[in-house]
């Protein structure tokens, strides 16, 4: 067993968490947990830095890596990972009781090797290590153990520093990784290792190839029906070579590619990629003032498959550079546009200012970046047969001149002037009644997930709708990674503190009315004749109502709106001179709200001094008797108007309320008589209207409580009575 620690020793234990399940209806957190749409899971070990590294749809398992000497690896069933009951297995690769901070094993790579084994790598306390794990043949096999005696070097597969991101994928037993391969993180490369082939990498210490890169995503995408044309695309951000100029961005987003069958050069670029090319990704928006906001820091990439495996959609998440101005955006790119850029002109530094210009000289044959034995080079069987001119050209010109622009040349989603940034992105394709839609789930650095749908507004532009934003962790923490399972309709979100499973839809929160369900414009939900419920394309019921594209309840719900729940008039009490809040939250975030005030049969728009309007209702400041009346909250969306809330406000006299509450607190009322004559009891003084209002308030409050809350209230009252009785008895005993 080799020595695996360069700090004070490494305890790199491999702990496997299998969920051997029992039914459990426990829910956690606050608002989201009330609808049973999420289940958080926190490991009982003192660990952190959870990352979802692999989701196995076939076996129904989720694999996580984390930082800790006791717990660095987890496997859970999708459906039961969040139930009680677990079997724990622990494997020690080496031992030291003094592991501190970064001198631990951070698991950064988990890839399927075959049907029964996984290949996993960790930082190994700044000396990366890898091993195989036997996970069993079937999902029912609760088998998870290390292959005895096998520990491999992780150099070129996993970064030394846990703060350095890396991206990797196993293809035909060859591991392709974008990774830093030295202790000081000064040497970054795109590597190919394993598989019995000679290791190959990008050119070393050449800033024209890679300049302090941060690797985000790496994936194989075929270019044609010819297998020799298959390429590996990798997405990263790097420091700009022109950042000293001031006007140029300091960080650039990139897409690069290499041929899978690249074997390196014969004389030049030996054991180096001879097909490496890269291009810039542009994601920017021009505001109404004409100022361009650029999103240059690539944060996450989600590649959405389509029916044509050669043309997936590339969704990229960007943020603005720097910490002063916070902004985020999502841009989507087509593979056709990316390939056109790689087939276009090369960039070349030329002139007295040494600026990037288009290379206009002769392009050698075969064209740099072309795969050997492919469609355009059938006679060249290996990259070692490339001409010296072609190899030397690509060594000096790895950058394409034109950048890649997003579809419609603008972002799908933009957030500026907000106090948060997006950190993670996944996309789901949803079939609705009126078509197929892309739903984006966007994690933020404040621990929330936004559910966003983008709809066609006209032939040249799109419209963004935020369906909801939910907090997914019990303790606020930035979202690190997300994986989506369309098959199980679940989203899995990780942070430093743990993992949460979130349902992709919460149709019940839209209510029972057809109009509310239609206005929500949620492609996961449709009105089934009785309530808003999950929609499946196979449903044949004619009463299913859904309109994602237009959200028009006047057309979809004609004759059905009356079947919704009749709006109840709620009674709310306020005390004269104080403030009160009238709540109103339309179920659709796109609705506009207007408040009407009704008094003595007259209804008018509420627009007076002393009323503060918020997204959740209105605040009435310094109440007086003229504020008493009926308040209507009217929501309007797509020309459809409906009343969301109807509140009857009653105003209580301040002096009476103070007197009543003061008398309850008096232990010796006689000592409070200020004058020479005894004061009459307040209750003996006839105030029938006010007393009736207070009794009505207490009764309405009690009726609004659920049976469970009423039971809790009764238990608390009984407890107070018992406590008071014990206190009285102890006083009597003391007097005795």
TrEMBL record:
Stored SMART domains: IG, IGc2, PSI, Sema
Family matches, as InterPro entries: Ig-like_dom (IPR007110), Ig-like_dom_sf (IPR036179), Ig-like_fold (IPR013783), Ig_sub (IPR003599), Ig_sub2 (IPR003598), PSI (IPR016201), Semap_dom (IPR001627), Semap_dom_sf (IPR036352)
An MF annotation (GO) of this entry: chemorepellent activity
Residue stretches making up the Ig-like domain: 576-645
Keywords, ordered alphabetically: Differentiation, Disulfide bond, Glycoprotein, Immunoglobulin domain, Neurogenesis, Secreted, Signal
Region Disordered, residue ranges: 663-687, 705-736
GO cellular component: extracellular region; plasma membrane
Domain Sema: start-end pairs: 24-504
Protein localization: Secreted
Transmembrane regions listed in the UniProt entry: none
Similarity section: Belongs to the semaphorin family.
Protein name, entry field: Sema domain, immunoglobulin domain (Ig), short basic domain, secreted, (semaphorin) 3Ga
